[in-house]
């Protein structure tokens, strides 16, 4: 392992400090919980937060937390689908209204039809979309 790789690698206490700091955003308390001396925890925390590898780890953990907090497209579609199917109740435990179910179905249609058209290269002019349905009898 090169000196550069050793410099970039976090110690066990630095990792613990980063985890604790993500919970509380309190440098002094995080340093104490990570095993640093309580008398100098405030100074140690300041030094740790300025240390490149520690700052990078905190940035990485913050980005990971933010990524988990935001719904992705799949989750949005699953939510709309559950509402459209009537699988989700309102705050009073009642079934979603027909209007809400239709809105959810409409949102699903917008996303899937728009995506299908973009994949096929069909331009959307004046925000209007023409859909041709071909009905065939099953044999």
Structural summary, described in words:
- It is a single chain.
- This protein is mainly α and 139 residues long.
- It folds into two domains: 10-69, Terminase, small subunit, N-terminal DNA-binding domain, HTH motif (Arc Repressor Mutant, subunit A, Orthogonal Bundle); 73-120.
- 64% of the residues lie in helices and 0% in strands.
- The chain is built from seven helices and no strands.
Q: Give the CA-based shape.
A: elongated
Strand content: under 5%
Q: The CATH topology of the largest domain, please?
A: Arc Repressor Mutant, subunit A
Number of strands: 0
**Sheet with the most strands?**
none
State the name of the first-level CATH class of the largest domain: Mainly Alpha
Helix-and-strand structural type: mainly alpha
**CA gyration radius, whole angstroms:** 26 Å
The run of helices and strands is: HHHHHHH
Q: How many DSSP H or I helices?
A: 7
> Between the first and last Cα atoms, what is the distance in angstroms?
69 Å
CATH H-level name of the largest domain... which superfamily? Answer: Terminase, small subunit, N-terminal DNA-binding domain, HTH motif
Mean pLDDT: 80
**Number of folding domains?**
2
Low-confidence spans: none
CATH architecture of the largest domain: Orthogonal Bundle
The helix content is: 55-70%
